[in-house]
Design goal:
- Helices cover about 35% and strands about 15% of the residues.
- The protein is an alpha/beta fold.
- The protein has an 8-stranded parallel beta sheet with strand order 2-3-4-5-6-7-8-9. The protein has a 3-stranded antiparallel beta sheet with strand order 1-10-13, with helices on one face. Strands 11-12 form a two-stranded antiparallel ribbon.
- The structure holds (4S)-2,6-dioxohexahydropyrimidine-4-carboxylic acid and zinc ion (ZN).
């Protein structure tokens, strides 16, 4: 196949940041119609007012159709969440276990402490997006997602069976199996977890631009993710988790977690689907399953992908004095987006 036209995709998990960084990266998601924008700013996007103000800054920075989220804290007011959703300001609420990842310090320590918010969301039909990792220091970083499924997600689902759940950036075969076993639960899959495994990050030298959370796992998990993404199953859909950090914060003694993939995300997904002989299912994953999960119509317009010469991309983009390094999969990409 040399050319493919699909409904315009959406990005169901994106970090746009704020200020100069926001202005630099917002236009880089130009292939995407809508995007669920993560609320882990400093300070985080916690209230209805915060979300309204952040939405305006995003639109002014050049991304026209952000879908906003609120950052769940142990002090979140259930009524504020429900009214933000009823007013159409937010699409979902994001749960970060405290300490799990970038700017998650104000996140949730105990599910009991947010029980009233979850119950109100369940009753009002407000979706919950989850960063699915336990944070206990004694649990091996490669086991933290699988432990989250058993210790947190299974009891949460049992207690709130009607709460709409999206398990973000799944990275293990255990997570894929869990999602399949729980109809109605959605899962996003990133570019880097389809293109790479921990060997790509760690063998023959440590590559900080492959470092993200949840961390890349072994090859058999990558295979399970590729099978899930390309299966056409409605539970699995596109969420880049494109997470820009300044180059100096990535190429550092203590490297920040996150891969900046937005400019090449669709080309990367197409590359994977081509390798898996599944280009005919790219549209389901990229453009149909996500809207269906969130009860929204697919985008009305289309994008055309054509296979051609290797993409010629700048390795970095400038953000007013700082730079952000673009994720490099380590091989050429051939899908051009029009
Ligand atoms: O690698 C990551 N980076 N994972 C996350 O969950 C957060 C993100 C960020 O905000 O940098
Ligand atoms: Zn994220």
């Amino acid at each position: 196949m040399e050319s493919l036209t699909i409904r315009r995709p959406d990005d169901w998990h994106l970090h746009l940041r704020d200020g100069d960084m926001l202005r630099a990266v917002a236009p880089e998601s130009r292939d995407m119609g809508r995007a669920i924008v993560m609320p882990n700013l400093v300070p985080p996007v916690v209230t209805h007012d915060d979300a309204r103000a952040y939405r305006e800054r995003i639109v002014a920075a050049g991304f026209a159709r952000p879908l906003m989220t609120l950052y769940l804290t142990e002090g979140t007011n259930p009524d504020d969440v429900v009214s933000a959703h009823a007013a159409g300001t937010i699409t979902a609420v994001k749960l970060y276990p405290a300490g799990a990842t970038t700017n998650s310090a104000s996140g949730v320590r105990s599910i009991e402490a947010v029980r009233a918010v979850l119950a109100a969301m369940e009753a009002a039909g407000v979706p919950l997006c989850l960063h699915g990792e336990v944070t206990d220091r004694e649990i091996d970083i490669f086991d933290r997602e699988a432990r989250f499924l058993d210790d947190v997600l299974t009891p949460l689902r049992a207690a709130h069976p009607e709460l709409k759940l999206t398990l973000e950036h799944v990275t293990t075969s255990e997570a894929v199996d869990w999602v399949r076993a729980h109809p109605g639960v959605g899962a996003t899959i990133t570019v880097q977890h389809l293109l790479a495994n921990r060997n790509d990050m760690l063998a023959g030298g440590l590559r900080p631009h492959f470092y993200c959370l949840p961390i890349l796992k072994r090859g058999r998990h990558q295979e399970a993710l590729r099978a899930a993404a390309t299966s056409g199953e409605s539970a699995f859909f596109l969420g880049t988790d494109s997470a820009p950090h300044p180059t100096h914060a990535k190429e550092a003694t203590c490297c920040a977690a996150g891969c900046f993939t937005a400019p090449i995300a669709l080309a990367c997904y197409a590359h994977v689907f081509e390798e898996e002989d599944a280009l005919d299912r790219l549209e389901s994953f990229a453009s149909l399953n996500g809207p269906a999960h969130y009860g929204l119509p697919p985008n009305a317009d289309t994008v055309t992908l054509t296979r051609g010469a290797a993409l010629d991309l700048p390795p970095r983009i400038d953000t007013h004095g700082q730079s952000v390094t673009l994720f490099d999969p380590g091989h050429p990409l051939h899908w051009h987006i029009h």
